[in-house]
Structure formats: C-alpha cells, structure tokens
Amino acid sequence: MTQTSPTPVLYRVTFMHTPASPFTDPDALHVQEDGGLLVENGVILASGTFSALRAAHPGVDVTDLRGGLLLPGFIDTHVHYPQGRVIGGLGMPLLEWLDRNALPEEARLADPAYSRAVAQEFTRSLLQNGTTTALVFGSHFASAVDILFSEAERTGLRAVAGLVVSDRLLRPELHTTPERAYAESKALIEKWHGTGRQLYAVTPRFSLSASEGILDACAALLREFEGLRFTSHINENGAEIQTVRELFPGARDYLDTYERAGLVTRHSVLAHNLHPTGRELGAMAEHCCTAAHCPCSNSALGSGFFPLKRHLQAGVHVSLGTDVGGGTGFSMLKEGLQAYFMQQLQGEGGVPLTPAHLLYLATRAGAEALDLHHLTGDLTPGKVFDAVLVDPAPQTPLRAVFDAAENPARLLAATFATGTQGDLTRVWAGGEAVYCRDRSGAALHT
Ligand SMILES: Nc1nc2[nH]cnc2c(=O)[nH]1
Ligand SMILES: [Zn+2]
C-alpha cells in the first residue's frame, strides 16, 4: 500500500458512528452534523463541528464532502475468499451446497494464476462495498493464502485470514495432515502476522472436516504465536450438527469439539451458531468469544433463524458477516438489513434492531470481535481513518431521501434500507483513499 500523506487534512462532512454498543448504551449512536475530522498520517487527530475544527486549525487543507454521510469502514467478520465466483448457488442446504457449489470452486485455487485473479476480485469487492477490515476464511492452499495477503496489503484491506485446514469428508485435494497444516500455517504466520495491516487467523474449516489431530495442530499454533485469531463454523445446519455429534462421541456438544482443544478464547470468532444449547452459550460468554451472524447466508441456505436474544441474554458478543458465497454479496448494508428483517420475523422472540444497532453490528462490533477496537470500528480521535462515504448520485432513490431528510437519523435508516454499493463513492483505509467513484460511475482507484 502507498504511504499515507503526512500532510493533515480536515474533512468537512456529516458523520455518524457507534463508539459504544447500542445493546447496552441507549446513547451509543454519535451524530455530528456538518462535522470536521482532522486526519494526519492516516490517524484521526481531532473531531467535532467543522466550525470548531476550522477555528482551531485555520491553515489546514479542507476536503469538502458535504451532501454525503461518512461512516466508519465496515468490518465483515465472516467472508470466504475462494467463493466470490460461486455466489448465487441457491436452493440447496449446507452440505449439498458445499459438495456441489463451493468445494469444486475451492479446489481451483490450487492454481496460483487462478487464485491471484480471485484475490483481486475479492479485495476489490470488499473495498468497493466499504469494507476496510475483514475476517477472511482463506483457502486450503498455502500459495493462495499468500496471494490473498499480498493483494490485501497492496490494496489497503486489513485482512485477518489464514490457511483453511481439513483432513476428512471434503474432497481429497482439499485435505491435508496435521503435520503439514502446522508447517504451512507457521510459514504463513511468520511472513504475514503483523505485517502492515495483516493478521493471521488459525482456521479449521469446521469440526465435521477436522480430526482431533488437526485441531491439536491448530492449538499448538495458538500457543506458539502471540496475538493470533481463531475462526471456524458452528451449529449452522441440522445434518451438520448430527454428523459432528457422531464424529466426536466424547464431546458435550459442537462447541466442546473446539473448546476441549483449547481453541475458544477472546480471539475466537465462530460463524453462525443458529442452534446452540444453553451450555454452549454460557461457555461462549465465559470464554468471551464472538458469534458471527450471517443472515443472508442463513436465509439463502435455509439454515435457520439466529437466536440473537438468547446470545444477548447469555452475554455472548455478536458481530456481522456476509458469508460470501453462502451469503448473497459483499454489502454490509444488505447484511444489516437482513439481520433486521430476521429479527422482525421472529416476533416476540426477536430483538427489535434500530439503525444504530445495524451500524454497530457492521462496524464497531466487528472491531471488538477481532480485538481491534483500539484501532478501528469508529471515528474517535486516535483511531485509524478507515471510513466510507455514502453520497448517492442525483436522481437515485437514496438521494431523494437524503435531500428530503428532516434529521440525520433518517439518513442512517435509509442507508441500510435502500443503500447499495452504488451509493458508496469513497473509501479510505488507514487514511489512504482506496476507492473513489465519480458521479459518472467511473472507478478512480482499486
Ligand atoms: N456457510 C458455510 N458454512 C460452512 N461450513 C463449512 N464450510 C462452510 C462454508 O464454506 N460456508
Ligand atoms: Zn462460512
């Protein structure tokens, strides 16, 4: 990635962010109309009203973004790098979808030329959707993971990613051994963990495809290297859960297959968790791990409703993920809206989500899940300037709402309800403009 400019810039724009959680703090949403954000060397130095910041910093160049709405860069906590080209495999439950749709494509990433093209599409898709940090489910091939990290670093995406490891029940070309999984992961960790914006996540695909030996190899890596993250899948689909039960007769439940190997910690993010037991929720809360909620995928694969209320009551942290390609695309706006819909559809059992909840789930909740909230996830001074500008073009549905809005809260609600990638015109990662689209629709970066 190119160096950030050391020259300070004062951005003039209405901005919103959630430095706290609306699930616990009713005043979590901060709205600054006609705001100012002073950014230098990629870091936010000061924030407030534009007029106050202008008075305090009269000589600084101003970038005028009035008419738009600035939000923190989105944080997608569950998205599969090798599945961008198989979005849209509708009409199948999880295990059939994996066999027929996802795994044949994942096998193609053995070819570095193919994986480079996919990595470029993937990083571009995330950035142009305003996602500046992602917990990425990598590839089964070390060469493809290396290519992903180099593309992420080149484009400015903060990827928390790793080699996906499995040793049974997928396809032979996707299987490895505990020894090879350990050795290949270690080499990637030594090259990429903490390099630039990149971090490493130890990633067994799911217990269904992982022997105890390979889970132990994952645990050895977590013990050996500081600050690694861990991610996998859990409790997504009835047939999957039943198979895991049969494969691990000694485990108390699905979580226990990871827990007894020492894989469930503050740095663990488990995707889905649609069908948890009370014990699993209690243990997840105790270990301070996160459930990544992926509502578009849950709907597309017919996996079920996410029991958000039970997670919150148990004290389990929840973040949001697109789960491309089980999910339907890279938009965290669409994902937030689908989360809202699915809670609405649960009636009394659902949690009524406000636009502040959706913004929190799409930004700060992900930063907390990844233990990166000291760096990103909101726009308070001291944070890196990871941000996205919503600035709908004239004569579009969202522009009509923006122009008519009587208060800024309406802008946020409408952005989630009807905003698309086409309404996002600029994205910054670490203060650098990594995506920019002019009014004609031409992409100027990435
Ligand atoms: N949704 C989803 N669930 C999984 N469980 C194991 N692999 C996958 C995957 O690729 N997508
Ligand atoms: Zn997934």
Describe this structure in words.
The protein has 446 residues and is α/β, with parallel strands linked by helices. It has two domains: 9-73 and 377-445, Urease, subunit C, domain 1, CATH 2.30.40; 74-369, TIM Barrel (Alpha-Beta Barrel), CATH 3.20.20. Helix content is 37%, strand content 22%. The chain contains 16 helices and 16 strands. Strands 5, 6, 7, 8, 9, 10, 11, 12 and 13 form a nine-stranded parallel sheet that branches. Helix 4 (142-155) links the parallel strand 6 (131-137) and strand 7. Helix 5 packs parallel to helix 6. The longest helix is centred in the first third of the chain and has 17 residues, at 112-128. It is globular. The chain starts with 8 loop residues before the first strand and ends in a 10-residue tail after the last strand. The structure holds guanine and zinc ion. This is Guanine deaminase.
CATH names the topology of the largest domain as TIM Barrel
Q: What is the count of structural domains?
A: 2
Distance between the termini: 11 Å
Task: Assign the CATH architecture of the largest domain.
Answer: Alpha-Beta Barrel
- Bound ligands, each once: guanine, zinc ion
Number of beta strands: 16
Largest sheet: 9 strands, parallel
Based on helices, strands and strand pairing, what is the structural class? Answer: alpha/beta
Continuous helix count: 16
Strand content: 15-25%
Enzyme class: hydrolase
Catalytic activity: guanine + H2O + H(+) = xanthine + NH4(+)
Cofactor: Zn(2+)
Keywords: Hydrolase, Metal-binding, Zinc
